[in-house]
Amino acid sequence: MKSRWPIISLYGVLTVASIIWLVPVATATMISILPLDESSKGWWNADFSTVTLANFGRAWQYGLSQYTLNSVIISLVAVALTVTLGTVAAYAFARMSFRLKGTFYFLLITTMIVPVQIILIPLVPMFRTLGFNQGWAQYLGIAFVHTAFGAGWALFMMIGFFSQIPDEVLESARIDGAGEFKAFQKIALPLAIPGIVSFLIIDFVFVWNDLLIGLTVLDSDHRPLTVGLAILQAPHLNQDDLISAGSILAILPPLVLFAILNRYYVRGLFVGSVKG
User: Could you report the per-residue pLDDT of 55-103, keeping only the tens digit for each?
Assistant: First the structure.
């Protein structure tokens, strides 16, 4: 029984932490499904017979539909670029030898520690010079920025998965006539799926939750959902019901993605934590 106390204590602490973490989510959920005059009294005192989904419809009509579409486009393009380039680069750094390999790896990894605030000022004129400040090109421009920031994380997370593939497996593929790209495509890539999915989820959440870059470099027609939620916070108008409804809508895509890919994500965490 004494040996079980540390485990019981750990689960107890985690349970309490989970409940504390869920309090803001539960509060936002309740405010989003109650009329404003009811929730303003304290949602725990509200008459739950007045529960309604009208707040979600109003938030959607207030412009969140366009902001949501913008976030979807930005996230899909940015994550697709980062995962594709990061996977190929991680395989090259893990399984191939080339000149200045260590230097390139160091430069890419340093992007992980560069604060995004540092590049905001030069980023605006750069967007204007490259033509990324107009129309649909803005989606591509901000996707490139997120890809640049995600490249270091992609290498850091995925190199370990490609390094764990036994040399004999890839060597047997080469003996059978497969080139380097074929060995990567048919052997290494399927074995690294858990690691790729783990990074995909993390990168999607990072891009989806971005506020600062989208607010700085994009115009009002192409800004993401996070900026739309900030705009709903009118200084002289209480719109807690709309903001809460929009917040719940905003957290649904990452939750759905995690629910769908959860088994790969868990496998990726465990496989990536073991060396050899």
Answer: 899 888 888 899 999 999 999 999 999 999 999 999 989 888 888 888 9
From residue 234, how far is each of 25, 158, 238 by CA, in Å? 21, 43, 7
Tell me 63's DSSP state: I
**Contact predicate 22/205, CB 8 Å:** no
Q: Which CATH class is domain 55-272?
A: mainly alpha
Cα Rg of the chain (Å, integer): 23
Domain ranges of the chain: 1-52, 55-272
Query: How many Cα atoms sit within 13 Å of 24 on the Cβ side?
Result: 4
Cα 128 to chain centroid distance, Å, stands at 27
Q: Is residue 90 within 8 Å of residue 158, measured between CB atoms?
A: yes
Q: Cα(216)–Cα(194) distance, rounded to whole angstroms?
A: 34
**Identity of the residue numbered 110:** T
- Specify whether the CB–CB gap between 174 and 106 falls below 8 A: no
CA angle 121, 122, 127 (to 5 degrees): 110
Under 8 Å between Cβ of 197 and 264: yes
- 175 vs 82: CA distance, rounded Å: 31
Distance between CA atoms of 31 and 46, rounded to whole angstroms? 10
Which pair of structure tokens corresponds to residue 4?
């079980």
In 10 A of CB 27, how many CB atoms? 14
For residue 246, which amino acid is it? G
Entry pTM: 0.85
- Of the CA atoms within 13 Å of residue 258, those in its CB half-sphere come to 10
